[in-house]
């Protein structure tokens, strides 16, 4: 499968570079999940977001989403066990992992952190599940997994 990435990132933090495999659109993420058997989706949002906003439905691709918060609700502190929990769920560090959040910020941070932990194929779903705000200041209509018409369910 050939993907055109929206651009891998490399941001300096002091002398240390943080990077990841790149950004993919929700449609590209769905293509990877549908066509690349080992590819996995990790939804890094919080439990309230999963319950109130909905979650990706990967059943037609024969997969299940991994739900693991990057930041713990309600404090929104970075989950200190995140990398260890990913290692339990996905021990093969060459597995393509797509990270999804609301709009692409937390998932990018998670992709960078897992790359730093030794995973080689971490992707950020750039528009997230709900995308950015539309002209009426609502999410879920102007971009993201839901607006792309990809499968999702309300828990």
Automatic annotation (TrEMBL):
Alphabetized Gene3D superfamilies for the sequence: Rhodanese-like domain
Ranges of residues in domain Rhodanese: 35-141
SMART domains: RHOD (SM00450)
PANTHER family: RHODANESE-LIKE DOMAIN-CONTAINING PROTEIN 4, CHLOROPLASTIC (PTHR47377)
Skewed-composition ranges (Polar residues): 1-12
Protein name listed in UniProt: Rhodanese domain-containing protein
Provenance organism: Hypericibacter terrae
Domain of life: Bacteria
Entries under InterPro entries matching the protein: Rhodanese-like_dom, Rhodanese-like_dom_sf, STR4-like
SUPFAM superfamilies reported in the protein's UniProt record: Rhodanese/Cell cycle control phosphatase
Region feature (Disordered): 1-22
């Amino acid at each position: 499968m050939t993907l055109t990435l929206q651009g891998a990132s490399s941001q300096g933090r002091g002398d240390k570079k943080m990077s990841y495999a790149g950004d993919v659109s929700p449609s590209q993420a769905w293509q990877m999940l549908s066509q690349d058997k080992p590819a996995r989706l990790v939804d890094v949002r919080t439990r309230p977001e999963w319950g109130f906003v909905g979650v990706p439905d990967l059943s037609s691709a024969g997969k299940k989403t991994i739900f693991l918060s990057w930041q713990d609700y309600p404090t929104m502190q970075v989950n200190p066990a995140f990398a260890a929990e990913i290692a339990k769920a996905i021990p093969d560090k060459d597995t393509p992992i797509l990270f999804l959040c609301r709009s692409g910020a937390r998932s990018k941070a998670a992709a960078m952190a897992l790359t730093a932990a030794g995973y080689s194929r971490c992707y950020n779903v750039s528009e997230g599940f709900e995308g950015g705000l539309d002209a009426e200041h609502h999410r879920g209509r102007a971009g993201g997994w839901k607006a792309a018409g990809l499968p999702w369910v309300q828990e």
